[in-house]
Amino acid sequence: KGGDGTKYRTDFRQTMDRVAERVGLDWVTMHKLRHTFASQHAIGGVSIYKIKQWMGHADIATTESYAHLSPDDEDIDTF
Questions:
Q1: pTM
Q2: Which of 4, 61, 65, 76 has the most C-beta neighbours closer than 10 Å?
């Protein structure tokens, strides 16, 4: 724990890993959950800049790996 009583990210990850293993979802990781979050929002047409902000990426280049999943403007117009 941090000095102010908050849990660190690694504490949460360890807890999540234990729970996932107990319920038979040991293949689920924080990385996969973050990747799925970003991918699904890119597919849904959310701005890559908004996804960058949500993911906490310092550099847009990190987030741009999801850009290929964004629908074309023409695809959005057909919905």
A1: 0.65
A2: 65
Q: How many CB atoms lie within 10 A of CB 19?
A: 12
Question: One digit per residue, pLDDT tens: the chain, 79 residues?
Answer: 555 656 666 778 888 889 989 999 888 888 888 888 998 898 888 888 999 999 999 999 888 887 777 766 555 454 4
Q: Cβ(47)–Cβ(32) under 8 Å? A: no
Joined together, the tokens standing for residue 22 give 């107990």
